[in-house]
Design brief:
By secondary structure, the protein is mostly helical. The chain has one domain (1-70). It is 39% helix and 0% strand. It is built from four helices and no strands. α1 (8-17) packs across α2. The longest helix has 11 residues, at 21-31. The protein is globular. The two termini are 30 Å apart. The relative contact order is 0.15. This is NADP-dependent oxidoreductase domain-containing protein.
C-alpha cells in the first residue's frame, strides 16, 4: 500500500519546515480549506504535534508537489453506505 508519510517529497517538505511528515500531511488539507480529522488514540505526544501545524503555511510549490502525489486510491470506501442514492463511490451501472 502506498504510504504518503514515507514519500521522499513529503519528508523533504517536512525537513524544510522542521516538522514531521505527519504534520505536513495534516497541514495539507487545512491549507486547501478542508477539515482534517485525526486519530486521538495515538497518545498525548501526537495530539500535541497535531496542534503545532498552525505556525506555518505550505507554499504554492509545496501544494503542487503534494497534489502530484495522487495515488488514485481510497483508504476508506464507505462500503456500508453502498446503494444509498448519495453514496459517492458507486460503480456506474451500464
Amino acid at each position: 500500500m502506498f504510504r504518503f508519510i514515507a514519500h521522499t517529497q513529503v519528508i523533504k517538505i517536512a525537513n524544510n519546515y522542521e516538522k514531521t511528515p505527519a504534520q505536513i500531511l495534516l497541514k495539507y488539507p487545512i491549507d486547501l480549506g478542508h477539515a482534517a480529522i485525526t486519530n486521538p488514540g495515538k497518545g498525548e505526544k501526537n495530539m500535541a504535534d497535531n496542534i503545532c501545524i498552525f505556525d506555518f503555511c505550505l507554499t504554492p510549490k509545496d501544494i503542487e508537489i503534494l497534489d502530484a502525489l495522487n495515488a488514485n486510491l481510497r483508504y476508506f470506501k464507505f462500503t456500508g453506505n453502498s446503494g444509498h442514492p448519495h453514496h459517492p463511490f458507486e460503480t456506474p451501472k451500464s
